[in-house]
Each structure stands twice: as structure tokens, then as C-alpha cells.
Amino acid sequence: MTQTMRAAVLEGPQRFSVAEVPVPTPGPGEVLIRLEGCGVCASNVEPWEGQPWSTWPGAPGGMGHEGWGRIVALGEGVEGLSVGNRVTALTERSYAEYDVAGADMVVPLPASLDGMPVPGEPVACAMNIFARSDVRPGQTVVIVGIGFLGAILTRLATDAGARVIAVSRRAETLELARQMGAAETITMDDHWRIIEDVKRLTDGRMAERVIECVGKQWPLDLAGELVAEGGRLVIAGYHQDGPRQVNMQMWNWKGIDIASAHERDAAVRVAGLRAAVDALASGKLDLSPLLTGTYALDTLGEALAATRDKPGAFVKAWVAL
């Protein structure tokens, strides 16, 4: 193992460099992972574009949190894991060749996933969002925004016995939603027409569950309109580019539950990661139609531009390390 590694450093708005930096050393209770790859998260887009509160340069490997690879060293006191184990982990600096993770933040990958890219963290996010959604058989679930999260949630809700209505702006992702089990699809282009379409498809009742997966003001407004009285609005989009306004009068009058579905409790996040690995290993979820762009570390900026712009049938990028 070398003493240095290549790591992406955010130097300023939309400007990365690749630096040669020391390989981190695992501390007590930590492992060192030689990364194979790292998924590119939509939550990276706003920091990459430059927020008013941003400072530069960023940490080497910073923002990368969807990594997987093999353990190459163990810190003091680590038990139950071995050098050579292939794992996915919850880390923070995985736009690099190596990263450290707490041993309790690591989930081993079974042999059935050998050779496959396994960005476990975003799948874990989807599993936890779905758990917070409390979807039940026979319900109508509207998913606003079909990307990586929305597509997985479509599959999970369909498999749970719900009827999914997928709302997305791109024809390619509406087709993806149908492949993932959506019963109905609606183009996201006209606020009032979409409301009328959902009203028609539900005989005026609207949807017991609505999951918003976009992270912008209009889709959030739209999602609130589509929830049935007494239903649940699940906010899964990344709302990072400023404050939001909501129609509290409507939310209050309908008596709806609001779930902001991004978990921060470490134990819950790891439980979601284990559930994600189980779903992938069993074949319940298949990431092959969702991982649509592979990039080198020195083209990370291109991967983030594609994540922002979503050209053609793009769903999710990952960086090969």
C-alpha cells in the first residue's frame, strides 16, 4: 500500500483539482478502505456550484459519501471485520482512493455482489425514506420526481402492494418508472393539470402517500396538493438552495402528516445500509438500470454537471476509483 493517494479537492465554484495527499490512518475502532468507487449524490450539486456560506478549498475527498471497496487495514480494537473484506460504508471523504470509516458504519458485501458497483448509502437512504413513508397495501402513492431515489421508491412501494403514480418531467424517467412498476405516469409540466390528473386517477380522493424527491419549491407545492385528507407527505428531496414556503393552511386543513425523511441517527442509517445490502443481494433491487454514467476522478466536475442537468436517460453517476 502506498503512503499517498489521489483525492478530489473542491477549489472553488465548479472547480476541482486532484491532489496527491497522505493516505489516512485508521484510528481506534476504524477501518481503512481502498475504494473501488463512489456514487455521485444530488446533494453535492449546490455545494459544487458554490453556496454563499461555502469556504474553499474543501477537504480532500470531501462530499463523497457513497463509497464501497475493500478493507486494507484495521484500527485498534476492531472486531468482526478482516482485511480483504469487501464492504460498503457510511463515510464522508470518498472522492479519493482511500477513506476511513468507523467499524460500526461498515456493512460487508456478500459474494453475490462481487464485481458490481455498490453505492450502498443512497440505497440505504431510499430504504429509510420508504420506512418513514409507512406505505400499506392498496394505497395510492404519488412519487414526485423520478431519479435514483424515486425509481427505487417506485419499486419498493409497488412491491408493498401500493398503486404508484409517478410524476416526472422527462420521458426517459417516466419510462423508467413504468419499468420499476408504476401503474400510472404523469408528465411534470403543468401544475393544475397534474392535480386534475391525480384527482381523476383517484376518483377525487387524491393519494394517501406522496413522496417528493426533487428538492425544489414548485414540486414541493405540487406534492402538498396531491395528498389526500389525513394522508402523509414525505419530503425526500434535498432542499439546500434556500428557505422554502409551504401552504400551511392547506396542510393544516387536510390534517396531513409531514415526514422529513433524511435520517441522522447513526444506528438508523446503518440499519438502512444493512437493509440496502440485503435488498441488492436478494435481487429485490437491481441498480444496473440506475447507474447510467461512470466517470474518472479527474472528471468529477463533469459527473456533477450531469447530475445537475440530467441529459437524456441519465439517472445516476458514479466515480470509478
Automatic annotation (TrEMBL):
Entries under Pfam families matching the protein: ADH_N, ADH_zinc_N
Keywords of the record: Metal-binding, Oxidoreductase, Zinc
Keyword Ribosomal protein: no
Keyword rRNA-binding (UniProt): no
Domain Enoyl reductase (ER): 8-310
Cofactor(s) this protein requires: Zn(2+)
GO MF annotations in UniProt: oxidoreductase activity, acting on the CH-OH group of donors, NAD or NADP as acceptor; zinc ion binding
Family of the protein in this entry: Belongs to the zinc-containing alcohol dehydrogenase family.
Protein name: Threonine dehydrogenase
Provenance organism: Paracoccus chinensis
